[in-house]
Amino acid sequence: MQELSVRHLLGIKEITPQDIQLIFETADNFKDVLNRPIKKVPSLRDITIANVFFENSTRTRLSFELAEKRLSADVINFSSSGSSVKKGETLLDTVNNILAMKVDMIVMRHSSPGAPHFLSKHIPANIVNAGDGTHEHPTQALLDSFSIRERLGEVAGKKVVIIGDILHSRVALSNIFALQKQGAEVMVCGPMTLLPKYIQQLGVKVETNVRKALEWCDVANVLRIQLERQQMKYFPSLREYTLYYGIDKKLLDSLNKEIVLMHPGPINRGVELSSDAADSHHSIILNQVENGVAIRMAVLFLLAQKG
């Protein structure tokens, strides 16, 4: 059986194109399982997984929890809001206390970039990064690519534009790495104030006109404006942002081709996407949610083999 080249999933940067392929092939099998009447397999029956979330999350945490339960793992949920972290306990102490309960794997979200990398050097459990600050969100990028492959047959050679708040997004960085490793062309689009200064050094195209970006691409992955991470005003108002960068069905229908529309969620309806665009035939947003469980099952299963 093929194996991953890594013990942890810390970021897309650390994995190979072969790893991505293996995760996708494994996810294909798990997707079949999820469509059966009995949606459970005993693959991780003796494994205990802790979901350690120092930052709020609904979809990612639920998706991981469902993936773990579908694999028959034992699951512990930890959220920092009601924990000793509030009393000043350090990250390492918190995790070591969880490990003392004989946990094999940790799925972790943290507001500090690099937190999972730090832990991977100090503890024996496998670690899956469920988002670290504005750095990476590897399973989101994997499920996004997997959804493109499902809709268009392959990722190689496709033109993908990521639109919106690139500066504060961990999804954007992971997606850029994942798409490039699979041979796709990547463009970022948004107001200059929301594009990182050195973004072109990652080998991506840059566009500030949303219509031009949509005319260029096969796939548009639209990100939300992350007001909770913005320390200052990057544009005059949400209304003005929507005027210049919002996507509605009228704009999609006016293009001279079909494009695929994606969003990692949660959608700010009426800001970056109108409801008629989000719910249109262009959209694979609900497929992304469904594929998230299969991809996370694949990642957990393959990492468990590395012990």
Automatic annotation (TrEMBL):
GO terms for biological process: 'de novo' pyrimidine nucleobase biosynthetic process; 'de novo' UMP biosynthetic process; amino acid metabolic process. It is an enzyme of class 2 (transferase). Residues 157-302 form the Aspartate/ornithine carbamoyltransferase Asp/Orn-binding domain. Residues 7-150 form the Aspartate/ornithine carbamoyltransferase carbamoyl-P binding domain. It comes from the Bacteria. L-aspartate binds at K87, R170, R224. Keywords: Pyrimidine biosynthesis, Transferase. Pathway: Pyrimidine metabolism; UMP biosynthesis via de novo pathway; (S)-dihydroorotate from bicarbonate: step 2/3. It catalyses: carbamoyl phosphate + L-aspartate = N-carbamoyl-L-aspartate + phosphate + H(+). Pfam families: OTCace, OTCace_N. Its EC number is 2.1.3.2. Carbamoyl phosphate binds at R59, T60, R109, H137, Q140, G265, P266. HAMAP family: Asp_carb_tr (MF_00001). PANTHER family: ASPARTATE CARBAMOYLTRANSFERASE, ORNITHINE CARBAMOYLTRANSFERASE, MITOCHONDRIAL. Catalyzes the condensation of carbamoyl phosphate and aspartate to form carbamoyl aspartate and inorganic phosphate, the committed step in the de novo pyrimidine nucleotide biosynthesis pathway. Belongs to the aspartate/ornithine carbamoyltransferase superfamily. ATCase family. This is Aspartate carbamoyltransferase. It comes from Pontibacter mucosus.
